[in-house]
Specification:
With about 200 residues, this protein is of the alpha+beta class. It is about 25% helix and about 20% strand. The chain has four helices and seven strands; from the N terminus they run E-H-H-E-E-H-E-E-E-E-H. It has a three-stranded antiparallel beta sheet with strand order 1-7-4. The chain has a two-stranded antiparallel sheet with strand order 2-3. Helix 2 packs antiparallel against helix 3. The longest helix has 21 residues. One of its GO terms (cellular component) is cytosolic large ribosomal subunit. Keywords: Ribonucleoprotein, Ribosomal protein.
Length: about 200
């Protein structure tokens, strides 16, 4: 298909957009999943728990969630969520172990990790800089009730995007005691000159 200059740019229409761009694209990698058949609310809470975590720690955390060794705190979508003792580690009271959400996020993180390896980044220093979960269009089904009625039986899928960035090592400024000049007030300088202590 030939696109003339007067028509809108049709090539850009199918391009995948992320809600934000990494600060340093050469030291970052991205991955996303669209229309994932997993609960939006559970996935949102799980994603918020691993945000800003190092990649290796996030993968270990999600594996522990699947085995119920660590819990996901439910802070936003917490209506009728039970209180759990494990949630005290997060300074919270309510939490769950959303196994399916953990599995989907693990797949996404492993995809992003392989993208990082392909780009030549150091996977040991990767941190989850950005992770976002958005609602996808609901999938409609129906359930049949008594007296010939029909009720909706909807699912709440979601879109997930993640950006991993290589953590830069902090270099401390060397302390030079030799090159430092001690600042003194003019009054003190006059007193030193008068005594001849210099």
């Amino acid at each position: 298909m030939i696109v003339s200059s007067s028509q809108p740019d049709l090539i850009e229409m199918g391009k995948i957009h992320y809600s934000r761009q990494p600060e340093n694209s050469t030291k970052s990698c991205k991955a996303r999943g669209s229309d994932l058949r997993v609960h939006f609310k559970n996935t949102h809470e799980t994603a918020q728990a691993i945000k800003h975590m190092p990649l290796k720690r996030a993968i270990r955390f999600l594996e522990n969630v699947k085995e119920k060794k660590e819990i996901v705190p439910f802070r936003k979508f917490n209506h009728r969520v039970g209180r759990k003792a494990q949630a005290k580690a997060w300074g919270h009271t309510q939490g769950r172990w959303p196994k399916k959400s953990a599995e989907f996020l693990l797949q996404l993180l492993r995809n992003a990790e392989s993208n990082a390896e392909y780009k030549g980044l150091d996977t040991d220093h990767l941190v989850i800089e950005h992770i976002q979960v958005q609602r996808a269009p609901k999938v409609r089904r129906r359930t049949y009730r008594a007296h010939g009625r029909i009720n909706p039986y909807m699912s709440s899928p979601c879109h997930v995007e993640v950006i991993l960035s290589e953590k830069e090592e902090v270099v401390t400024k060397p302390t030079d005691e030799v090159g430092k000049v001690k600042k003194e007030s003019k009054k003190k300088q006059r007193r030193i000159l008068a005594r001849g202590d210099y």
